[in-house]
């Protein structure tokens, strides 16, 4: 039984129901390298400490050349420099019969305008307006803030040095809530978890799956 559906859970299910079952139903773990994630973890940690006013000078000296370049890009980003509201926090909301949620990198503001920030050291999602991370974070932030002039989701793509900005609208809210409720219902009613062989390459369970 899933208590809270996260964007990663939903994306895993859509990618391969069997992988979802291994990960979130059977709670299996498989060895995998942490190297690809280290760069992103460092940048996210620095960003969080810096927004909270913690002295990070010592931590900055431990960054690699590439990491320093990414960190400089983020520090100079116009959205990262807006007024701090909250960072690295879990946010949840109930959509229909289901709870959904995730961990937001940062929430900043400019007057009554609020911006959900997501730092990417890789690439942003395809069709980001309808990515489940976008949809769930928007719905959760809308419920959390309650009153605001406008709400935006900003993917800060440090790799391509670009910002992808999405504005939340009333029409989007209805579409998002419907899509989220439908996929959560589908997952909750699943009893069979077939493998998607198109996504087997690179899967951490590939050695004992099938």
Give the tags.
alpha/beta; six-stranded mixed β-sheet; 7 helices; Lambda Exonuclease, Chain A; 210 residues
Please characterize this protein's 3D structure.
This protein has 210 residues and is of the alpha/beta class. It has one domain: Lambda Exonuclease, Chain A, CATH 3.90.320. It has helices at 7-15, 17-25, 35-51, 57-60, 65-75, 132-145, 170-188, and strands at 4-5, 83-95, 98-110, 113-120, 150-157, 162-167. Strands 1, 2, 3, 4, 5 and 6 form a six-stranded mixed β-sheet that branches. Strand 5 (150-157) and strand 6 (162-167) form a beta hairpin. Helix 3 (35-51) runs parallel beside helix 5 (65-75). The protein starts with a strand and ends in a 22-residue tail after the last helix. The mean pLDDT is 93.
End-to-end Cα distance, whole Å, is 24 Å
CATH class: Alpha Beta
Unreliable spans are: none
| Tertiary shape | globular
> How many independent structural domains?
1
Radius of gyration: 18 Å
Helical content stands at 25-40%
